[in-house]
Structure to design on (844 residues):
RNA sequence: GCCGCUGUGGUGAAAUUGGUAUACACGCAAGACUUAAAAUCUUGUGGUCUCAACAACCGUGUGGGUUCGAUUCCCGCCAGCGGCACCA
């Protein structure tokens, strides 16, 4: 009890001191010191406050920032709020409060909790995505994208959540259900703003080369973009002046193509269906319409289809092959038509088997020319070509792919094509609590086919140009377009944004013709504000630029970006895309925003399950900190396991960390009281312990090895207390410094007690550097092995490390326990690894 | 199914470039202090054999391989976790 109160006293005292000295953690825009930018993903300030996941991730960032600061870097370590979004809107509706007010309450709560946990943010750089001064620039980015022809309006079937009454991006649909509420998603046609992120697909892959992201993250990005090279092959329809184009990644299988399938939504479908087949086709299409998206796209379902009655010609061998309709073909991928090669695609195999279509195998495994494929599980990926005329005998993927592509393109049967899994990004949301999209639509100008692209920009894509008729961004000097405060936030039943019910907002004047015009009433998705927030931290108060070039050049790129796995694909991709675009229009000085991405682990509940209110296993960091002390919680979080790992909360382990901190404090206090009486002289044994510790801690901190850093500190304290040596003041100070990033309160208190530093905080001190001469010990113990098995040890002093190999081996031979093994045996080989190992290889 | 990751004590986990496997902590056991409890401190703690110690043997999911020597590198398999899935 007494102990706990002491912790609290210290915490209150130093929190007040830090509050009064904000310059401690301020990033300096003018300093000559080398910069270092540590970024934690900014949180969504929910009503339930800071959870353990936040505390874990933020402590990890804070330790790193404190470490780098002490190493003498000019550190930028900022924090802000990603505050737009549905939960706040829903909560506001429920509580009959304004979202603006809810956001203010929540961010106030988060900020004070963060201060309590001693996160060393530069609070003068706080940003909030819902602040008009901030979203002015989110809107500005949208306008720039529009001007560059990277945003267009499109009437398109979107994923519609009937419960949230909102359109969802593909990314927000999980298992066919709404990511937020779990309701099954349906399709709905709505005119949406769409961002052409696909234009940047290759750049987003290539740019990864310039980053130090861990492989896992790079791979996730590459997979999501899903670049696929292949051909679009044209199949001419018999007796009609038409063609069906199919995209394929595997053009080398063209000689095995024995049919073509189109999706039920295929545009030209009517002209392909013969009179005899008409009835059957109509029936099939009716049935497939009844299936929902989930049924149609579950990989295991039966492949069904119907013959159209038409035939096309396989260009490479003039063979007549049938055209089918099948709902396993997707209308919105590739060309909506697929060539069927039964033996080399598992779906095609199932389809061919069901309808008795011809199968021609065109590849065999490298060593077995008699191999026949008779099941969809045996599809060959890379074999040797057969049944393919002049290409027979070639290796399929390496040689035949290239040769067949060249040959077909030369003959005008096909064109090269790259497809992506990545789709354009639906940017419209029909909700209140988001950035208003700063666009105006003028019907009059639309009738006159006015497009701002006509006069200002050269946009090649005809569809994009047409979609822009009548649409204009609001003039830049009118930004920000402020979200009006309204009484009702509920979306309308027809799915329109609540803003559409406010005539004062909707009705405006056309900037072009001066006539009556209407504003866009959709708002932007959550991602819009979080794509670029790291830029704003560099220059928060700038109201003429997104941030000044000068300051961006000083701080970019972000040196370490710490966040969760769940943002490794979407957020990171969107954010990199926006940054690359801003680089192209010369608004930012670096091609990539983040140098290194660190993805932190997950803290599970004490029951080893994900924390959730319904399971009742939620740990609230604030509550634990009140009980045991902030430093204990911080240090425990960092000690639990590797920073990237998944681990369960355990009160027992936390108690171990608490014991350690108590022992540490007690030890230092005892030493300090001794210091007054004696001037302890430096002692070599002590110096070795301290310097090895400095070296190890520094190295581990650098690579986020927090758990081993703390283990080393614990081990050193054990050694120190056992040795019962008196420590000189300078070494006591080193110990306090090494602990400072983890335990800011206790170390600050001890630092003030150790004395003679004026008013300087421990967090402003320079990080100790290990002295080379103390890093090697007096004596080294070398294991001696026989046939690789350690049988004995040999103690040698440093001096002897320099003596002849022969002498070491001779000494090793003379050891009792070694003699036992080697006497009377023939030694085939003697191996000595300097300072590490001796191994005798004997016969038998 | 595909992609990625991970398998080490009773538990969370360490192990540099291939060089003494299990650091650090938890838990457990015994002991000290205490009227008692808590707290604190000390000692022990992979397995087999042994009264015990020494020694020996076995041990990093599993089966092989490379090597003087493999938790680490290579090949095959098994189990678990995460992500994506009729993407042609």
């Amino acid at each position: 009890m007494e102990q706990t109160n002491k912790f609290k006293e210290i915490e209150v005292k130093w929190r007040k001191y830090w509050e009064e000295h904000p310059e401690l953690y301020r990033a300096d825009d003018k300093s000559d010191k080398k910069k270092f930018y540590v970024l934690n993903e900014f949180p969504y300030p929910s009503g339930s406050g800071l959870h353990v996941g936040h505390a874990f991730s933020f402590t990890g960032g804070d330790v790193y920032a404190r470490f780098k600061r002490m190493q003498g870097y000019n550190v930028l370590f900022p924090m802000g709020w990603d505050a737009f979004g549905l939960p706040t809107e829903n909560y506001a509706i429920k509580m009959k409060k304004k979202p603006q007010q809810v956001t203010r309450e929540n961010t106030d709560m988060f900020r004070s909790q963060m201060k309590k946990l001693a996160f060393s943010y530069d609070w003068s750089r706080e940003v909030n995505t819902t602040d008009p001064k901030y979203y002015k620039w989110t809107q500005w980015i949208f306008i720039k994208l529009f001007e560059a022809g990277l945003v267009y309006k499109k009437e398109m079937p979107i994923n519609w959540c009937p419960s949230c009454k909102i359109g969802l991006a593909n990314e927000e649909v999980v298992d066919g259900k709404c990511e937020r509420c779990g309701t099954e998603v349906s399709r709905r046609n709505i005119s949406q703003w769409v961002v052409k992120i696909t234009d940047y697909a290759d750049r987003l892959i290539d740019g990864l080369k310039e980053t130090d992201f861990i492989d896992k993250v790079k791979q996730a990005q590459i997979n999501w973009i899903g670049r696929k090279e292949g051909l679009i092959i044209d199949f001419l329809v018999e007796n009609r002046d038409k063609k069906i184009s199919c995209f394929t990644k595997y053009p080398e299988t063209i000689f095995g193509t024995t049919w073509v399938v189109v999706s039920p939504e295929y545009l030209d479908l009517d002209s392909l269906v013969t009179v005899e087949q008409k009835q059957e086709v109509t029936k099939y299409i009716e049935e497939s319409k009844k299936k929902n998206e989930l049924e149609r796209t579950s990989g295991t379902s039966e492949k069904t289809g119907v013959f159209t009655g038409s035939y096309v010609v396989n260009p490479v061998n003039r063979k007549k092959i049938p055209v089918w309709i099948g709902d396993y073909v997707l209308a919105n991928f590739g060309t909506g038509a697929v060539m069927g090669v039964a033996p080399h695609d598992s779906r095609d195999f199932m389809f061919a088997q069901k309808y008795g279509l011809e199968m021609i195998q065109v590849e065999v495994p490298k060593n077995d020319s008699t191999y026949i494929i008779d099941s969809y599980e045996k599809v060959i990926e890379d074999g040797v070509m057969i049944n393919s005329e002049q290409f027979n005998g070639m290796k399929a993927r390496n040689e035949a792919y290239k040769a067949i592509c060249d040959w077909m393109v030369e003959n005008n049967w096909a064109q090269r094509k790259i497809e992506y899994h990545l789709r354009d990004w639906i940017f419209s949301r029909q909700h209140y609590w988001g950035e208003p999209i700063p666009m105006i639509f003028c019907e009059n100008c639309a009738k006159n086919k006015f497009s701002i692209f006509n006069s200002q920009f050269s946009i090649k894509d005809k569809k994009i140009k047409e979609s822009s008729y009548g649409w204009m961004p609001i003039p830049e000097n009118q930004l920000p377009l402020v979200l009006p405060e309204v009484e009702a936030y509920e979306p309308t039943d027809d799915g329109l944004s609540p803003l559409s019910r406010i005539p004062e907002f909707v009705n405006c004047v056309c900037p072009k013709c001066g006539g009556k015009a209407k504003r866009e009433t959709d708002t932007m998705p959550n991602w819009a504000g979080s794509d670029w927030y790291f830029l704003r931290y560099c220059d928060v108060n700038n109201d003429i630029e997104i941030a000044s070039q000068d300051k961006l050049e000083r701080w970019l790129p972000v040196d370490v970006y710490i966040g969760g796995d769940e943002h490794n694909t979407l957020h990171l991709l969107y954010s990199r895309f926006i940054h690359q675009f801003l680089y192209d229009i010369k608004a930012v000085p670096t091609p990539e925003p983040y140098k290194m991405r660190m993805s932190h682990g997950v803290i599970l509940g004490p029951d080893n399950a994900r924390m959730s209110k319904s399971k009742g296993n939620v740990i609230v960091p604030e509550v634990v900190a009140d009980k045991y002390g902030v430093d204990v919680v911080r240090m425990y979080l960092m000690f639990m396991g590797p920073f990237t790992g998944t681990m369960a909360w355990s009160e027992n382990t936390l108690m171990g960390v608490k014991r350690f901190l108590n022992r540490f404090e007690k030890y230092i206090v005892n030493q300090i009281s001794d210091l007054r009486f004696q001037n302890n002289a430096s002692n070599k044994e002590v110096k070795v312990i301290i310097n090895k510790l400095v070296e190890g801690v520094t190295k581990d901190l650098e690579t986020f090895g927090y758990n081993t850093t703390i283990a080393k500190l614990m081990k050193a304290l054990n050694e120190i207390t056992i040795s019962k040596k008196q420590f000189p003041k300078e070494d006591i100070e080193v110990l306090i410094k090494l602990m400072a990033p983890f335990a800011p309160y206790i170390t600050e208190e001890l630092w003030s007690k150790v004395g003679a530093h004026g008013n300087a905080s421990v967090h402003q001190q320079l990080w100790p550097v290990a002295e080379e001469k103390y890093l090697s010990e007096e004596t080294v113990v070398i294991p001696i092995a026989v046939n690789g098995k350690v049988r004995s040890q040999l103690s040698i002093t440093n001096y002897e490390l320099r003596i002849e190999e022969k002498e070491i081996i001779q000494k090793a031979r003379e050891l009792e326990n070694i003699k036992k093994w080697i006497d009377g045996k023939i030694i085939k080989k003697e191996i000595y690894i300097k300072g590490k190992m001796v191994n005798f290889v004997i016969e038998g």
The mean pLDDT of chain A is 87. The first strand of chain A starts at residue 35 and ends at 40.
